[in-house]
Amino acid sequence: MIVDEQLIHVTPELKKEPTQLYSSRYTLEILNVINSLVGEKGAAALLRAAGLLDALPPKLNNKHENTIPYIYLANLFRTLDIIYGSRGARSIAYQAGKLSFEPAFGKLKIITETKAKLENQFRGAEKLETALCTLAEISAQSSDQHITLADYTDHFRFTVGNCPICSVPLQNELPVCYFTVGFIRGGLQNLLGVNDYPVQETECIASGDPACVFTIRKKRFTTTEVGSGLTGFLTLPEHLHE
Ligand SMILES: [Zn+2]
Questions:
Q1: Which of 21, 67, 235, 236 is the most buried (most CB within 10 A)?
Q2: Helices (H), strands (E): how many in the chain?
Q3: Which residues, 6+ apart, have CB-to-CB distance to 85 below 8 Å?
Q4: pTM score over 0.90
Q5: How far apart are CA 136 and CA 158, in angstroms?
C-alpha cells in the first residue's frame, strides 16, 4: 500500500458528460511541429490518412478556444503508428509534445506568473512541484482533461483523466501517451530551464488502466545515467514503476 501520497493539486472534474474538446491553438502548434519533423508532404499524407484533411477547418483558430474534438488527435496519433511504425511514431509524438509547448503556451500569463514565483524558490523539489501544478492547470484549461497531481517521497504522479490520446478505444499492452511525456518534459524545460527530470507513463487507459499516470522523479538524471544514454523518454528506474 502506498502510504506517502500527498495530494497537491487537483483540477476541477467535469460535472456533465465530457465534451471532449481540445484547444484550437494547441492543435495548430502540434501540427506545425509535426510539419517541421516529417516535412510538408509527410504531414499532408498523415492528415489525409487520419481523415483530417476534410475534418479540420481550413484555417485553425489561433486562440486557445477548445473547439477541436479529441477524436481528431487520437486519429492523428494512431495514424502516426501506421505510417511510421511504433518506434518512429513514439519519437514523433514525444517531439510534438515537447516542441509545441513553447509556441502554444509560452506567452500565457500563467507562465510569466509561475516563472516569477520560481525565482523565489530554491529547493529543487519545491520548484518541480510549482512547475507541475502549472502544467496541470494548462492541461485542464486547453482541453477536457482532469489532472490530479500527487506528491510521493521520491516522485510526483501526474494523473490524466479523460486523456485525448486514449479517447478512441484501443487495446495496447504498452502505454501509448508519449505525446504527454513530451508535453511534461517540454513544460519543465520551459519553466525550469532544464529538461533533466525523468518522466515516464506508468499506467495508460490504452492498456486497460483507469487513467493515464505519469511519474516524474524528483532526482534529476545522474551523470552515470547521462553517460550511459539513459536520459530518453522511455527510461525510469524500476522502483518507480508502481
Ligand atoms: Zn495513456
A1: 236
A2: 8, 7
A3: none
A4: no
A5: 8
Q: Tell how far the Cα of 203 is from the centroid of ligand 1, in angstroms.
A: 7
Q: Which pLDDT tens digit goes with each residue over 18-75?
A: 568 889 999 999 999 999 999 999 999 999 998 888 888 778 888 888 888 888 888 8
CA of 209 to the centre of ligand 1 (A): 9
Cα 21 to ligand 1 centre (Å) = 17
Instruction: State the cell numbers at 194.
Output: 532544464
Diameter of the chain by CA atoms? Answer: 51
What ranges do the domains of the chain cover? Answer: 6-240
Cell of residue 199, nine digits = 518522466
d(CA 165, CA 78): 9
Can you spell out the DSSP letters for 63-77? S--EEEEHHHHHHHH
Ligand 1 centroid–CA 206 distance in Å is 6
How far apart are the CA of 119 and the centre of ligand 1, in A?
33
**From the CB of residue 80, how many other CB atoms can be counted at a distance below 10 Å?**
25
Q: Which CATH code, of 3.40.50.720, 3.90.1520.10, 3.40.50.1970, 3.50.50.100, is assigned to 6-240? A: 3.90.1520.10
Cα–Cα distance, 140 to 132 (Å, whole number): 12
